[in-house]
């Protein structure tokens, strides 16, 4: 009896072991897939304006490559930004709760295929160099973004074809619906608040505390390697070869992380004079009007009041108005909103990176960002003096 029982027990244990390993693997994939969707959605909701800029970039590309009607979506970019980002969070929560798994898995697949198409198209045709998958928190190259989506599809496949290991539902029926509704409300609320104020976490080069002037310079001496060719042979050199038979092909930085973090910041006056260094000296309050066509005009009564009040500031705060609009457009605009003061010009992309508000304020002390203010949160003179 004992000799026949032992082999049976051993066989059962051996049979259970692969099942236990598979169950653990599937649950890890399930947890990772749900967590990554929630993380991705929350990072985008942190800066819905930045996500909207990325959507606008895709719409412009698709309008040229496919059909012009994609341009009509640009006006809805901010709404779509919050909607798509919130959907990622909702589906991630639904997956972790194992709520309505059939519907949730199909919705996740649709979203993954959609994102996979975008990232592949960007990578294969070099259309959008940064998909914005994780906002400005994690910058990914187009091909890295695509392979990230392939990895997520792999996680999805593991979970989808092994749902027998995920039988327990953590929230079902009315309770499950309430949880999902609450998750959706929180996600939308996070995005709407960030849209009407400022990102909760600023990952851009112009965040509070950064020294713009310092970031315009290399943090260390840049080193390069030179890719040269001679007689069909390619070779790398750390110093430029003196042999003139070598033909130059490419120069590759060896320490790109030491390069300037800000490369395009430039401000100029009406006569094209460069005033960039003037901006980075002393206490400056920059009123940034990214473009007059989309600037909120209702806030200029309070803005004008602030600009008038800082004339008597003990901190000697100098206001500077900076826009990307043409001189003619801005001259008409400033008369419409009674905006007095000398104005300057900068690239539209730079101004969008500086602040996610149109109009908005940047407070600088010798080029160091001391404060950023949305037009919904216009500071007082006392606030500016305190921040300095």
TrEMBL record:
The keyword Transferase does not apply. It holds the Pfam family MauE. It is found in: Membrane. The chain crosses the membrane at residues 25-43, 79-97, 104-123, 143-161, 173-195. This is DoxX family protein. Residues 22-160 form the Methylamine utilisation protein MauE domain. It is a multi-pass membrane protein. It comes from Hymenobacter koreensis. Keywords: Membrane, Transmembrane, Transmembrane helix. InterPro entries: Methylamine_util_MauE.
